[in-house]
Amino acid sequence: MSSATVASEEARKPAAERNAAPPARRPAWRDVVTFRGPPQPGLELWLSIAAFLAVLGAWALVAETGLVQPQILPSPFAVVAAWGRLFADGYIGDIGISVGRVWAAFLASALIAIPLGILMSGYRAITALLEPIIDFVRYLPVPALVPLTLIWLGIGEGSKITLLWIGTFFQLILLVADDARRVPKEFIETGRTLGASDSSLMKDVLLRAMLPNMVDSLRITLGWCWTYLIVAEIVASSSGIGYELWTARRYGKSPEVFAGILTIGIIGLVSDQAIRYLHRRWFRYLQ
Amino acid sequence: MSFIRISDVAKQFTTPDGGTIPVVRPLSLDIEEGEFVVFVGPSGCGKTTVMRMVGGLETPTSGEIYLKDKLVEGPSRDKGMVFQSYSSFPWLTVLGNIRFGLKYRSDISAAEKEKIARHYLDLVGLTPFADYTINRISGGMRQRVAIARTLAANPLVLLMDEPFGALDALSRERLQLQLMDLRRAERKTVIFVTHDVDEAVLLADRIVVFSKRPARILADIPVSATLPEKRGLDILDHSDFRKIRRDVLALIRNEERSMEAAE
Fold first, then answer.
1. Residue B62: predicted pLDDT
2. pLDDT tens digits for A173-222?
3. By CA distance, what is B153's nearest residue in A?
4. CB count in 10 Å sphere of residue A200
5. I want to staple B120 with a disulfide (CB 3.0 to 4.6 A). Which of A66, A152, B33, B148 is the partner?
6. With a CB-CB cutoff of 8 Å, which residues 97-126 of chain B face chain A?
7. Which residues of chain B make contact with A184, given a CB cutoff of 8 A?
8. Cis peptide before A41 (omega within 30 of 0)
9. B101, B150 in Cβ contact below 8 A?
10. What are the record keywords, sorted (chain B) (predicted)?
11. Pure H helices in chain B
12. CB distance from A186 to chain B under 8 Å?
């Protein structure tokens, strides 16, 4: 094409369009304040970081200016110092013990709840047998069971793990059964008409189809484990994050109390994000 | 005895409060081996229920169904099913899904299974998409995966429940033509449920028209007696095609009118 034709084509366009600059890109900040606007991952991350830093800043400001007594609200720097003291005094061992207790109870819950939940979703007899009992136990307040576990199992690891197990197992089994029930009927019927037996149907179709939702259920249950762990460690323990937290309170060491609470929060956040990451990797086919 | 014998089969559903809703009135139907039978009727009339009873996915309240002289007592590999909703497994690839159709066959070796899976993958034209995950392919492709998977299991009868109902017009047309090719190559006995009368006349050797619920058979129209077996889209203009289409539509319209009158 010669430059002459280009020029003439340019001339034929309406004046407004001629040599018009490319339309200005909508600034990212407009997208994030638009109702159901398009995603802006970069800006969203910065917003999250900014909010986090703002809370931290406000906390430091209030504490450092003496607006609130340090006994009530220690400054972030005091908390960091407390962390230093705690870790120098073997805090990592306490963390290890707490994490160990949580995972022991969590795995024991999951290993029993997953098969039972799947069976419950599939066989009405099993639902009829188990559901009333599960619903009853589910509404028992877990802290109220602490004296019982102490009477039965003493103050060893057994009583704490049992307490966490009771707190999570009866919830998890119902979550798993629900995940299994949500698998489309067509998947099950497809399996059947391709010749799958009941056991292959549960293993090859049901379990695979429900897996992404089940991993989410497990992630949520793991969070509950931490709640009950602290209850157990405060009431009856001589080690663990909860025990250290309670001991610090007894001696009025607010920074250590804060450090303990934040430690649990960080562990929870990290494990939650780790499972979310694995979820994205394992179930890439969902995207 | 004919290949599929539906003998005085009736079905009632039980409501949660203990009442019963008759869905299928006692009806009988014989289907020969290799026949392509299409069930049509007003929506919600019970035609799908009849097909699901043949597949063993529903139990008749009374009467019996025989497939090749054997009483149908539940789902099995003999009765392959293709559903309207996408039933391909998202955790498997296209080829993985087709392989799944062979998973529970103990009559053939692993090498043989792989050969058969690839054969059907090719037959439905998905070889270039073998390693795609299900969520990355179109609805039409997903139904082709489901058909290939079902054929790979080598059922005696292929049961199709409005398999193209969720597709756009062009994909539907393409799949209808492909299904006719597949069927000529495979000589399968097919029961196909649809509410699309054009689709019914295009595909069928025989159209069975059902009444409104509770279903009974209104008409049993031998399409292959008047239309050629090998049909293309040009058949849509064929005068016999239009006549059959008109007759079937008239029957269904009449039923739907009496349904509205009853309400």
1. 95
2. 999 999 999 999 999 999 999 999 999 999 999 999 999 999 999 999 99
3. A194
4. 15
5. B148
6. 100-101, 103-105
7. 85, 87
8. no
9. yes
10. ATP-binding, Nucleotide-binding
11. 47-54, 94-100, 110-123, 139-152, 169-186, 197-203, 239-262
12. yes
Whole-angstrom distance, CA of residue A56 vs CA of residue A60: 6
Instruction: Give me the domain span that covers residue A131.
Output: 80-286
**How do residues A100-140 score in pLDDT, each as one tens digit?**
999 999 999 999 999 999 999 999 999 999 999 999 998 88
CATH class of B4-78+157-262: alpha beta
Split into its structural domains, chain A has a count of 1
- The DSSP 8-state label assigned to residue B9 in this structure reads E
Q: Residue A27: how many CA atoms within 13 Å on its side-chain side?
A: 3
- Give the mean pLDDT per block of 10 residues along chain B (263 residues): 94 90 94 95 90 96 95 95 90 96 92 95 93 93 94 95 90 90 88 93 94 92 84 83 92 84 71
Contacts of A121 (CB under 8 A, 6+ apart): A127, A176, A177, A178, A180, A181, A206
The residues spanned by each domain of chain B are 4-78+157-262, 88-154
Instruction: Find all residues with CB under 8 Å of A183, minimum gap 6, and list them.
Output: A205, A206, A209, A210
Q: Does B155 touch chain A (CB under 8 A)?
A: yes
Tokens of A269: 């956040």
Q: Report d(CA B183, CA A242) in Å as an integer.
A: 69
Q: How far apart are CA B55 and CA B81, in angstroms?
A: 7
- Six-digit token pair at A28? 């990212």
Q: Is A247 helix (H, G, I), strand (E, B) or coil?
A: helix
* Rounded-to-integer distance, Cα A195 and Cα B242, Å: 41
pLDDT digits (tens, 9 = 90+) for B18-39: 899 999 999 999 999 999 999 9
| Inter-chain residue contact B89 with A195, CB threshold 8 Å | no
State the DSSP H helix or E strand holding residue B6, giving kind and residue range, or none if neither.
strand B4-14
In this predicted structure, what is the pLDDT of residue A4? 46
Residue A203 touches chain B, beta carbons under 8 Å = no
Tens-digit pLDDT profile for residues A6-64 = 445 545 555 555 555 666 677 888 888 989 988 899 999 999 999 999 999 999 999 98
Element (H, E) at A5: helix A3-12
